[in-house]
Design brief:
The chain is mainly beta and about 600 residues long. It has one domain. The chain is about 10% helix and about 30% strand. It has nine helices and 30 strands. The strands form six sheets. Strands 13-14-16-17-18-23-22-21-20 form a nine-stranded antiparallel β-sheet. It has a six-stranded mixed β-sheet with strand order 8-7-12-11-10-9, with no helix packed on it. Strands 2, 3, 4, 5 and 6 form a five-stranded antiparallel β-sheet that branches. It is globular. It binds MU-OXO-diiron (FEO) and calcium ion (2 copies).
Amino acid sequence: GATSFLGGASALASAATQATFLMGFEQVAASTADEITLPPGYNHEILVAWGDPIIKGGSKFSVKNDAQDQLLQFGDNTDGMSIFHLNNKNGGLDESRAVMAVNSEYINKEFMHTHKGESMTADDVKKEIFAHGVNVFEINKNKKGTWKVNKNSPLNRRLHGDADEFVMTGPVTGHPLLQTLADPSGANIRGTLNNCGNGQTPWGTYITCEENFNGYFGAPKGTPLSKEQLAYGLSENGFDYNWWQTEDRFNMAKHPNEANRFGWIVEIDPMDPSSKAKKRSALGRFKHENAAITLAANGKAVVYMGDDERGEFIYKFVSQESYIEGDRAHNMRLLDEGTLYAAKFNDNGSGEWLELSFGKNGLTPTNGFKDEAYVLVYARLAARFVGATTMDRPEWVACHPSSPMVFCTLTNNKYRGEKDSQPLNAANPRATNPFGHIVRWVPENRDHTSNRFGWDMFAMAGNPNTQTGLMAGSDNVNADNMFNSPDGLAFDADGRLWIQTDGNYQNEGIFAGQGNNQMLCADPVTGHIRRFLVGPKQCEVTGISFSNDQRTVFVGIQHPGTDWPNADKDGVPRSAVVAIRKDDGGIIGS
Ligand code: FEO
Ligand code: CA
Ligand code: CA
């Protein structure tokens, strides 16, 4: 059970009353103000917002910008991001120069077009597609400590939804399931979409994660959809983007395999703007939230991943080959080949990784699993078949920097306990779970390649003011730090756990007193949680990356709803990345 690995949840709760030495800042109160609130002694500046030029020749933001303008500008709805410092003349890291890779997850039609999406042209559709994907650009810090985008850097690029710069790698490459009229090779993919969370590899590459790709596809009324398409949420109307009416490849009636080319982990070399981005088929196709990458003691690259949908699963990939220090070319192939697993959380605190390999655990033609490619393209079906535990929408996973602890946010699940396929279990114990929770696990023998782990509940979000029992939340949640719908999750190098929320911001009913979406900091051992930041109205706080010296933290403010950040004359709210620093230049969170 968990006690053999972790000491159990009760020990965690009592530890939460002890002092924490990780957090030196004063807690911020919940707020509904249309601004960013930070602890005393902290400041923030906007680094880049949707529509800012990030490539040489790019135009200034205007809501009247067209598709060609958007090609040279920062995309919409900022999400996961990573920083890669450049080297200085002595071969060390340059603390003032870095390349940043930032996801642009989706678009808001009502703000993207002057007509609010009500009279779409083919060019408007292109603008929307170009506003998705990944933004890669150099940032420089001046003497005052302010970071600025260097839009003239040769490293800058936009890997958008229509970019001809993606290749499929790994076992599914070239398989009939990936072949289309435009690409009979099944290997050359156009674009990346719904880039949600991220990952950063120890060998210096960026991972972008394709999440709700299903929303972009559509089909004429009455088009029959397969059980595989339905399992990934594909439907006639998608999320009403209606791209399929002018962009033929999104029409499932004509191009049923195009959707199989999305929903992957994508690896990008931020230092080589001429390199192809690689979709990594060995890591499985699902609604990828983020990718937490660590190296096992034997050098295998281990990637933990969540599939964000009600009742879907947590996955783990273990590379075939091992990491070799200093051999970047070799390491950049580690995600080509390996073994995929899905997690089973037993009620007694133990857990198992169930292998999703063709021919194992019943994943055979007799049971409908035709070949290795089928298992990976339809990884959800495989995980369900082998008996993995349905979870309350797995969002981000984060690995502790110096211990084998792994954490995952389960954001909420209105169907838990109400659908036969999603019964209550110890890892998802709350019916209709409106607040979400965070689980923690440790692999057996501290070995990330082990097939066994122990787990416990790190935090149950809740509202101790208005609720009782399980709905009040765990002991480390109180009237002063309460929140709902944990989503973004990341460790800094000192082991502070940062939690970002994407939840209900109405501040009423069961959410009364929780205010706008926010970012909190937790001590992963004692369980203390302290609110660090409150975002502007209606936004989601998502995406986090620290400069190497930990003296700047970049945080994403996604889909603010009114007119934040007041940076333009159009009165259009714009998603933005903000740079947060301490007035005294100290380490963030200390
Ligand atoms: Fe893009 Fe599940 O958040
Ligand atoms: Ca998210
Ligand atoms: Ca979310």
